Amino acid sequence: MTLIDATAGSAPRYPVGALIDFARALLAGAGMQPVSAQAVAEVLVEGDCLGHDTHGLALLAGYLGELDSGAMQGVGEPRVLTERTVAATWDGQRLPGPWLVRRAIDWAQPRARLHGSATVVIRRSHHIACLAAYLEPVARDGLMVLLSCSDPATASVAPFGGTQAVFTPNPLAVGIPTSGDPVMIDVSASMTTNGMTGRLKAAGQRGAHAWWLDSQGRPSDDPAVLFAQPPGTILPLGGLEAGHKGYGLALLVEAMTGGLAGHGRADPAEGWGATVCLQIWDPAAFAGAEAFTRQTDWLVEACHGSAPRDPALPVRLPGERGLARKREQAQHGVGLQPSILPSLAPWAQRFGIAPPAAV
Predict the structure, then answer these.
(1) What pLDDT sits at residue 11?
(2) DSSP letters for 140-184
(3) Could you tell me if residue 196 is inside a domain?
(4) Which residues does 316 contact at the CB level (< 8 Å), separation at least 6?
(5) Which of 99, 157, 254, 282 has its CA 20 to 30 A from that of 350?
(6) In terms of domains, do 239 and 157 share one?
(7) 161 neighbors 180 (Cβ within 8 angstroms)
(8) What pLDDT sits at residue 174?
(9) SS (H, E, C) 41-89
């Protein structure tokens, strides 16, 4: 996922609240229940605020199309399949992913406070958008959170050494409390994402490196190989030299999502969606919250203090740049990719909703 240049003055900026209101109104117009529409709108805009611009409002037109076709259910409740004291499995029933994940956080947080940790897995969720968008509130509350997902209906990433896709990029995100800003890790088990591949292809652009293999197993910097017939694949994280590491991460995410949920790639595909695993820990239940942050604060200082390879690029912690951009954009408006609002214009016209005005 790329990061937008939030300091650029030439691109139009839009108030955070106006973007949330616009997205919520479009989702409601497409038939999504109000509480879900609010959650989805907030999560999508949070993704843009953090700079994950392939997984923010760029997804909204696709979500509206899924609602319109019935592939995403706008109204309903998840079905509880199993529930123990600190573990639950839900059937998301193709409901909006951001709303389901927030529901899972609300279920897991008090149980983690009481028992030390809690886990929710969700099968048959719709897409859950930007994983980093869920981390900050939980980590600022002093809890450590891990979120991972896979999409069993899609395959675009080959196992290391292979040329046929088995996995999705299988992202994994972690929010780690410190005495200051949380560390927010959001990585995929692949070299790039499906969203970035599609954006680069649409723009006629190449990748920064050979992130893909063509169908013959030859490395390529051309995203179009993923859409060829026969299709190519996205390389696992680590590429040709160390892709066994991304391959291992992909298998871990599959076990945590499809394995624990009992629903995944071994089952018939249902369309764009996600199988989700959410885990929350309370450090107070282990060595203690103060002991935890003593260690994480030391790591933050040590990483910041490491002599940079390039003096112009000091060492940052994961999420540091995103949180800085979020603060800047909250003050000056959110810069959007130029294709986003045009993609939403037909929906806005259909539902009679005025687009947001630039700052």
Answers:
(1) 77
(2) HTT-EEEEEEE-TT---BPPTT-SS--B----EEEEE--SSSPEE
(3) no
(4) none
(5) 99
(6) yes
(7) no
(8) 98
(9) HHHHHHHHHHCCCCCCHHHHHHHHHHHHHCCCCCCCCCEEEEECCCEEE
